[in-house]
Design a protein that fits this description.
This protein is mostly helical. The chain has one domain. Helix content is about 80%, strand content about 0%. The longest helix has about 45 residues. The protein is globular.
């Protein structure tokens, strides 16, 4: 996959990187992180500018993500009648994501950027719910993209001449990201449980006073 993307991006430059990233937002079965790394590699090989590649990467992922959110926003629950989107968002997955939103709130939008395979359905549900404004969505998604996009592009750029070592680092960075997300999710769960417990104790205290 990486070799193909590097060859494709070398031939067509920024436009190819941008197009693939937008399509990734629609559920194209191409790893977004590898696409960004490939963009970084062709910059490291001198075909493009690495700083411009970061900007192109940011725009591509945000447009792709925004498309899914806005489609959910415009069509609402009717979008599940469309066969293509029904494959992305099955009734079971829809129910599960709704429960996650109730538990983690906006934090789920931030985390979704780092979850291949779940990113598109989560953004669809966020739009369908109409509880999240587009400004809020793009702020959360953009904040996550500011972390992920530069990391992958610059990683590809700095190790463009040693693909084997690069792939080792890609695996290490992915593990580090998932570990960090696990810690964040654990903190969110602790805060959620603490608030629930405090609310129940307050309710119990109010009942006792009555």
């Amino acid at each position: 996959m990486l070799d193909f993307l590097v060859s494709f991006f070398t031939d067509y430059g920024y436009a190819a990187v941008f197009g693939i990233l937008v399509l990734c937002g629609f559920g194209l079965p191409v790893p977004e992180d590898i696409s960004l790394v490939a963009g970084g590699i062709i910059s490291g090989l001198g075909f493009t500018n690495h700083h411009v590649m970061v900007v192109i990467g940011m725009i591509g992922v945000l447009i792709g993500d925004s498309s899914m959110f806005l489609l959910g926003r415009v069509f609402g629950y009717r979008i599940q009648k469309i066969k293509f989107f029904r494959k992305i968002l099955s009734p079971r997955r829809f129910s599960h994501i709704q429960k996650q939103f109730k538990q983690y709130g906006l934090g789920l939008l931030f985390v979704a950027r780092f979850l291949p395979g779940l990113r598109s359905p989560i953004f669809l549900v966020a739009g369908m719910s109409r509880r999240v404004s587009y400004i809020t969505f793009i702020a959360m998604d953009g904040l996550a993209a500011l972390i992920s996009v530069p990391v992958w592009v610059y990683l590809g750029y700095f190790f463009a001449d040693n693909i084997d070592l690069l792939m080792e680092y890609v695996g290490d960075v992915q593990k580090l990201i998932y570990l960090s997300l696990a810690v964040v999710m654990l903190i969110c769960v602790i805060i959620y449980v603490k608030k629930k417990f405090k609310h129940k104790m307050q309710k119990f205290s109010d009942n006792e006073q009555k």
